């Protein structure tokens, strides 16, 4: 029995280390998007600064990444930007996500993994679009409490952070109305190249879209029933069965339970644990195909000091896991066991 257990442990470790060896790049480009116009809660524009103040750059360097910080985007200031067809701040949003699309494309052309830190989830329309310009065969893992795939005509709020995916999905082109400023934003991904994890608050229009177009969707019910390992495996079997497609991970911090990520604008009880969030990031990193990551909706102006601390702690640890940090520890690539000048006992 002991030898069988030991064998299983060795096999598990062998698989884990194989995943680390497959990691193709430690070159990371960080793009900050201090943006809040896609929703109504003030403070989320301070997310990039809060993550930098929490040491995300140095923490990535510590685990062997070569980090290039592209800085924060300069958000367009448009004083007269009234709603258009149920989209609030349309010109500001269109201009911002265009800047981000170009920035992510350049980051990938520079052979760096694009890490976009927000900011509200509107920005993912730009980051995914930019990623697709550089790597058209990319697939998307969307970890969130919400589907964010309302069209302007199904949205109840007019907040663009609940719509970004609808503008990107090929199958929804006929359902996106003309909005001035968005002419450049073309669809770039098939519905069946998307997998949702952690959903627990969908609007009727979103649920219809998910079912009608066969988008892979694992709600918290499936996470509870199957476990996060099966959920992630099944997601990858749908969107990336051979692990040969570039992966875009869009991670909304409200996918986590509010008890560990309360500093966010639209918290929904019953979310992922920090262990489940880190597991997703670790496993995707092990594929060697994770080439773009968004971490969004950290709002350091919301919640108690305890909420803010835990939310930043969670976000930082998930980001580190995306870029190679392992919970059992990391061994530097050039590490060798030190030898003493004089040994206690010589080998015979």
> How many strand segments?
8
Element pattern in H and E: HEHHEHEHEEHEHHEHEH
- Which value, in Å, is the CA radius of gyration? 21 Å
Instruction: Bin the strand percentage.
Output: 5-15%
Order of neighbouring strands in the sheet with most strands? 2-1-3-8-7-4-5-6
Q: Level of helix content? A: 25-40%
Mean pLDDT figure = 93
Task: Explain what this protein looks like in three dimensions.
The model is unreliable at 10-25 (pLDDT under 50). The two termini are 33 Å apart. Strand 7, helix 9 and strand 8 form a beta-alpha-beta unit. The chain contains ten helices and eight strands. It has 348 residues and is of the alpha/beta class.
In short:
This protein is α/β, with parallel strands linked by helices. The chain has ten helices and eight strands. The model is unreliable at 10-25 (pLDDT under 50).
């Amino acid at each position: 029995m002991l030898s069988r257990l030991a064998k299983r442990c060795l096999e598990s470790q062998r698989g884990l280390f194989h995943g680390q060896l497959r990691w193709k790049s430690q070159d990371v480009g960080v793009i900050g998007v201090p943006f809040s116009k896609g929703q109504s809660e003030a403070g989320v524009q301070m997310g990039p600064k809060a993550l930098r103040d929490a040491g995300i750059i140095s923490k990535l360097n510590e685990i062997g990444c070569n980090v290039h910080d592209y800085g924060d985007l300069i958000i367009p200031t448009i004083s007269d930007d009234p709603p258009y067809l149920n989209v609030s701040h349309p010109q500001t949003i269109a201009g911002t996500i265009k800047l981000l699309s170009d920035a992510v494309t350049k980051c990938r052309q520079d052979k760096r993994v694009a890490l976009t830190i927000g900011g509200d989830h509107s920005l993912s329309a730009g980051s995914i679009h930019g990623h697709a310009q550089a790597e058209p065969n990319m697939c998307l893992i969307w970890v969130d409490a919400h589907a964010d795939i309302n069209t302007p005509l199904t949205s109840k709020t007019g907040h663009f952070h609940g719509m970004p995916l609808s503008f990107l999905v090929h199958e929804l082109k006929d359902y996106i109305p003309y909005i001035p400023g968005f002419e450049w934003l073309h669809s770039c991904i098939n519905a069946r190249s998307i997998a949702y994890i952690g959903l627990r608050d969908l609007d009727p229009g979103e649920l219809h879209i998910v079912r009608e177009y066969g988008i892979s969707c694992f709600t918290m019910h499936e996470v509870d029933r199957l476990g996060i390992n099966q959920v992630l495996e099944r997601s990858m079997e749908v969107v990336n069965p051979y692990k040969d497609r570039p992966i875009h991970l869009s991670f909304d911090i409200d996918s986590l339970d509010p008890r560990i990520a309360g500093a966010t604008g639209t918290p929904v009880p019953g979310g992922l644990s920090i262990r489940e969030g880190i597991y997703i990031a670790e496993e995707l990193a092990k594929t060697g195909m994770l080439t773009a990551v968004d971490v969004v909706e950290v709002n350091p102006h919301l919640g108690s000091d305890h909420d803010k601390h835990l939310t930043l702690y969670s976000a930082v640890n998930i980001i580190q896991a995306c870029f190679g940090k392992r919970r059992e520890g990391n061994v530097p690539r050039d590490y060798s066991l030190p030898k003493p000048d004089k040994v206690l006992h010589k080998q015979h």
